[in-house]
Amino acid sequence: MATVTVQLHRLASDDDLACAWERSTGVAFPRYTSWEELREELSRTHGIPELKVTDQGGFLQYRAASSNVSVLVVDDRDEERGERVGDGDVWSLDLWAPFRSG
Predict the structure, then answer these.
(1) Of 18, 30, 40, 45, which one has the greatest count of Cβ atoms within 10 A?
(2) How far apart are CA 67 and CA 42, in angstroms?
């Protein structure tokens, strides 16, 4: 299995990291990304896969097995935005694919 994790939560406390990411990839991410905003954008896309929700103890995992993507979202009402992401914000994105040796 090959996996990539994009740790979006790190952007909340590190402006230099966000700038370096944008320079190297050409993709800008905001300091915070709420799950509601992301889900709203996804709803505009045709053929969205069904999401399985799993409680991960302080996080909710939204997993779309058919597209090999999962989103980890902060699920803690005591967490507020600041140097860290807050309740309802995306913590990370995981993308995976079967590993094929060859």
Answers:
(1) 18
(2) 13
42-83 pLDDT tens trace: 888 887 788 999 999 999 999 987 888 999 999 999 999 988
Among 77, 82, 94, 70, smallest CA distance to 13 is for 82
The pTM score is: 0.83
- Phi/psi of residue 85, nearest 5 degrees: -70, 160
Determine the number of helices (DSSP H) and then strands (DSSP E) in the chain.
2, 5
CA 62 to CA 7: how far, in whole Å? Answer: 15
User: Residue 70's closest CA among 90, 44, 87, 41?
Assistant: 90
Query: Max alpha carbon distance in the chain (Å)?
Result: 48
Residues 19-27: contacts with CB under 8 Å, at least 24 apart: none
